[in-house]
Amino acid sequence: MISLTPESPEKSTNNSIIYNQWTQLILAMTGMIMIANLQYAWTLFVPELQKGFNASRAAVQLAFSLFIALESWGQPIAGFFIDRYSPRLLLTIASFMVGIGWTAMGLVKTLNGLYIAYSLAGIGAAFIYSGAVASGVRWFEPSRRGLASGLVSAAFGSGAALFIPFIASALKNQGYKMAFVSTGIFQSILIILAAQLMRVPPKKDSGTGKSAGTQQHHFTTVEMFKTLHFWLIYIMFLFIVTGGMVVTAQTKPFGQDAGIPSNIIVLAATINTIANGAGRIFWGIVSDKLGRYQTMFLAFTLNGLAMALVPYLGKNPFMFVFLFAMIMFTWGELYALFPAVNADIFGTKYAATNYGFMYSAKGVGGIIGSFVAALVAQLSGWSPVFFTGAVMSILAGCGALVLLRMPKPVPPDKKVNI
User: Fold this and answer.
1) b/e sequence 377-393, b meaning 16+ C-beta within 10 Å
2) For 195-220, how does the pLDDT look when each residue is reduced to its tens digit (9 = 90+)?
3) What is the pLDDT of residues 304-340, one digit of tens each?
4) What residue intervals traverse the membrane (predicted)?
5) Domain assignment of residue 141, given as a range
6) Would residue 414 count as lying in a domain?
7) Among the listed residues 32, 265, 53, the one whose alpha carbon sits nearest the alpha carbon of residue 164
8) DSSP character for 212?
9) What is the pTM of this model?
10) Which residue from 33, 108, 359, 380 lies 20 to 30 Å from 99 (Cα-Cα)?
């Protein structure tokens, strides 16, 4: 009988290829690539689903809101299990949820069926995302943590670029049903294979590493909640994630409203995913050199400026592609920087659970960026949508400067009562 078993790092197998940190990084990236379509290829399906279900854009985008909510709000639960149990069985189950959910989206007959199928895929994606990110920060030392988390998150951010040309062709020639079914089955199989080889890092000998006096405290989730740092980081995450959710969900709808040719929209969607992934690697490396918070300020501010220009310049095909790519290039790094900041401040032992709660802000941002943005655009046009996103991004950048000047939180056992 299959049962969950507590994670038990091996001590004697650290010379094995499987227990190599780069092997584990590649496996984590594979899982991320295979769930990338769930978020970043969605925009291509929206007009086709509107026709197929004879539904409004807002009604179809509600499915995306539900996916983002469950994929993000499921992270704390996923993180709890990932922190405590072997990832293999958990990620295997999650891969079936992703495959069944995404495939079923091409088979359901009603909007409610679409909502349920996309939600199931979202829950599975939560476990895969949480396991992959935790692997990235656990297997690498702090000096390479930005690079590792950048590569893992880049796989999620740019993975859809491998599938978008195929999906666009399938949508044109075979319809959205075949596009969902074929990619759903393929993604599920590869995640299952990768999951069988994923491991937790071997335990280090007690005599190595930092001395006991300088060892980092690993904050539990309850301890983390009691710090001001967490709540500032959570607000920053919410503010910066919202703008990118607008681009992720609304690239094709905005492009159609702006009169952008369909081939340019597909090109933009492809470049968006590449820019998204490249930004995660680039800013992750920069953060290891420049500093996490300085990098956040620079990237988030540039993101806000690009968003503010969309209402003025976004109707030009070239500027449409350029500005949306710039938004994604300066947005995707949040998924590389926040996991690293989480591990830097709160430790790695409970990294999956703690980051899961930070990541839950994406659920709120997803609702604002998809469903709410579609309603606002329908009632008032696109300008309020992008201007609001610009202000939120710049405020997130300012929050990074505040975080830079705050001392690290004091562990409960080190606090002195006066």
Assistant:
1) beeeebeebbebbbebb
2) 888 887 776 654 444 444 456 788 89
3) 999 999 999 999 999 999 999 999 999 988 888 898 8
4) 21-42, 62-82, 89-108, 114-134, 146-167, 179-198, 228-248, 260-283, 295-313, 319-338, 359-379, 385-404
5) 21-202+219-409
6) no
7) 265
8) G
9) 0.73
10) 359
